[in-house]
Design a protein that fits this description.
The protein has 239 residues and is of the alpha/beta class. The chain has a single domain, classed as 3-Layer(aba) Sandwich (Rossmann fold). The chain is 49% helix and 14% strand. The chain contains 9 helices and 6 strands, in the order βαβαβααβααααβαβ. The chain has a 6-stranded mixed β-sheet with strand order 1-6-5-2-3-4. Helix 3 packs across helix 4 and helix 6 packs across helix 7. The chain is globular, with a radius of gyration of 18 Å. Keywords: Transferase. It comes from Goodfellowiella coeruleoviolacea.
Length: 239
């Protein structure tokens, strides 16, 4: 399965499956989904190139997904004018596209194996739409899941752990951003037409922890949906 895109097959990353099932999905090596957050300085061109090379070593197929939806409304909710939010959102989307493109050019030959998508590419797809309806129903009917989503928005999108500091409009904008991504956490194998898939990100989140821990909720991850925390090995202390 190794493509030998770079000499070191580990490529300086530490991978941690989030459960025993996630470990098995990683071992199968069918598919990895690499989510790239727009506007996140963590995803430099060099780090993306190394991360994609790592994924190409362990997985047969790799898809890269960047978010290009609800960015402007998030920025407006955070205090930007509508005009400035639109301009800033477009700039951030162009920037993440450029970084991904240059990262893939950096790891050639082999970069053409990776498929790159904007989230908006899937909005009209029936599988995505079916999963999105399921997500919205879960948010409305499962208080535990709704609480996890709100916590996720406050901690990761708004960077405000104090719930009293979030106006309803701001929280709603963050939820809209998050809900657009959620189908890829619930059943990315169905969306991409693969046998199993590992959703890879550099931090664990309340949402992933919920989907791994609770199998009795309204919203459940597909049995062939895995999650992995993949971080630079330098972030971990050496014994």
């Amino acid at each position: 399965m190794s493509l030998d895109l770079l000499p070191n097959p580990a490529h300086g990353f530490h991978a941690e499956p989030c459960s025993a099932r996630c470990q098995r999905i990683w071992q199968h090596g069918d598919h990895a989904l690499i989510g790239v957050s727009t506007g996140n300085s963590y995803f430099t061109q060099e780090r993306l190139a190394a991360l994609l090379t790592w994924a190409g070593h362990f997985f047969t197929d790799v898809d890269v997904l960047y978010v290009d939806t609800h960015i402007d409304t998030m920025l407006v909710a955070l205090g930007h004018s509508a005009q400035h939010a639109t301009k800033l959102a477009k700039s951030r989307i162009r920037d993440v596209r450029r970084r991904i493109r240059r990262a893939l050019e950096q790891i050639r030959p082999g970069g053409d194996r990776f498929r790159v998508h904007a989230l908006s590419d899937f909005l009209a797809e029936p599988t995505y739409q079916r999963l999105r309806v399921h997500v919205d129903q879960a948010l409305a009917s499962d208080h535990r899941f709704a609480s996890v989503c709100e916590d996720m928005v406050r901690r990761f999108l708004l960077a405000r752990p104090d719930p009293d500091g979030d106006a309803p409009k701001t929280l709603r904008a963050g939820l809209n951003y998050l809900l657009a991504e959620l189908p890829f956490f619930v059943d990315s194998p169905a969306i991409f037409g693969v046998s199993s898939s590992a959703n890879c990100y550099h931090v664990s989140t309340p949402l992933v922890e919920y989907l791994v821990r609770y199998q009795d909720g309204v919203l459940r991850a597909a049995r062939n949906q895995g999650f992995m925390v993949v971080r630079p090995a330098e972030d971990y202390p050496h014994p």
